[in-house]
Amino acid sequence: MKNMRRLFLLISMIAIALFAVACSSDTNGNGGTNNTGNSNSGSGDPGSGEASAELEGSVVIDGSGTVYPLMAKLAENYMINEQEGVSVEVSRAGTSAGFKKFLVENGTDFNDASRQIKDEEQAEADALGMEVKELKVALDGLTFVVHPENDWATELTEQEIIDIFLASTGKENWSDVRPDFPNEPINTYGPNENHGTYEFFWEVILGKEDLSSDVNLQQEYSTLVDLISKDKNAIGFFGYGYYANNTDKLTAVKVDFGNGPVEPSLDTIKEDGAYANFTRPVFTYLNVDHAKEKPQVLDFAIYAMKSVNDVAGETGFAPLPSEEIDKVVSELEALK
User: Where in the cell is it found (predicted)?
Assistant: First the structure.
C-alpha cells in the first residue's frame, strides 16, 4: 500500500512537470510571433512601398492650382496605402500666393508651382536661412479652349492666339483675327496673377507685353470652366488637366506652330514634342529643413517622386523620363 502511494505521487509529479513545459512552450511560441511583427513594423525603406516604419503627424502643401490635382491624388494614395497615421493637407492658393505661405518661419512643407521660383523668392529663402529643393514633378501643356459651339476658332496659329490676348494688337472682334470669322466680340478668360499659369503665359508666351485690359481673370479654375462653357464667344487658357476633365463642356484649340495644327494631348505635350512651345514643367518646392526635422515630410517627398509618373496621366499631366525621377529620388534618400 505504501509503495502504491509512492508510485501515484511520482506519476502526479511527472504529469505536473509535463503540463508546465507545455504551457511554457505555448507562451514562448506566441511571444515569438509578436516580436517578429513588431520588428517588421519598425523597419523598412520609407516611400519604397515595402514595409515602412509607422509614421504620424502632418504634411502641409499649398501653391499651384494647376498642380493641385496631381498632388491631391498622391496625397490620397499615400494616406490610404502607405501611412494611415499621417495627414497630408493639400491646398491651392496659387503659385505666388503659396510661396508667401512657404517662405516664412514655420511655413508650409511644400509649395506647388507651375513656374520656377523667382530670384526674389529665392532671396527671401536665403534671408531666412531656409534650404529649398526644387522637385520637377511632371509636364503640362498650356491649353486654349473655346465653347463647343464655336466652330470657327478650333484651329489657330500660335501668333493669332498671342495677338488675341495682347493689348497692342487691338483684337476686339473675331473678324479682326480672320475676315471670315464672325463679327462678334472676343471674350477672353484666364487665371489671375496669383497663378503661375498667368505668369508663364505673360512672361514666356506674351514676352511680358501688356495683356489686354478686358481679359476676365479668375482665382478659381472651376469658375473659368463654367464661364467659358456658357459663352459662345469665349476663349480662355489653363493647364491641360482642367480641359481633360471637362471635354464635354469645352473644345481645345489646335495650335499651328508652323507645321500644321497640333492638338494638346499627353502624346504631344513634351519639351521636345509637337506641342513644345506651350509645354512647361511643373514643380513642387520642398523645405529641406522640415524634411530633416520631420520624418513624414521626407517620407512623403520620396513617395511622391517614386509614384508621380503612375498618376500623372490620370490627372492630366505628361510623365517625366524615368532617369530624371531616379536622380531626384536618390538625392532625397541621401537626406535620411
Answer: Cell membrane
H or E segment to which residue 22 belongs: helix 2-41
- Reported as a single tens digit per residue, the pLDDT across 271-291 is 999 999 999 999 999 999 999
User: 40 CB contacts (<8 Å, ≥6 apart)?
Assistant: 51
Strand 234-239 relative to strand 132-146, pairing = antiparallel
CA–CA separation, 203 and 116 (whole Å): 12
Distance (Å, whole) CA 192 – CA 66: 12
- Taking the C-alpha atoms of residue 116 and residue 281, their distance in angstroms, rounded to an integer, is 9
* Secondary structure (3-state) at 218: strand
CATH class of 57-140+281-334: alpha beta
On whether the pTM is more than 0.85, the answer is no
Give the residue with greater pLDDT, 16 vs 295: 295
* Cβ neighbours of 255 (radius 10 Å): 25
Give residue-wise pLDDT tens across range 198-231. 999 999 999 999 999 999 999 999 999 999 999 9
Residue ranges covered by each domain of the chain? 57-140+281-334, 141-279
- Dump pLDDT digits (tens) for 151-199: 999 999 999 999 999 999 999 999 999 999 999 999 999 999 999 899 9
| CATH no. for 141-279 | 3.40.190.10
Dihedral class, residue 215 (left if φ above 0, else alpha if ψ from -120 to 50, else beta): beta
List CB contacts of 44: < 8 A, sequence separation 6 or more: 50, 51, 52, 53
Grid-cell match 476633365, residue found:
245
Specify the DSSP class assigned to residue 154.
Answer: S
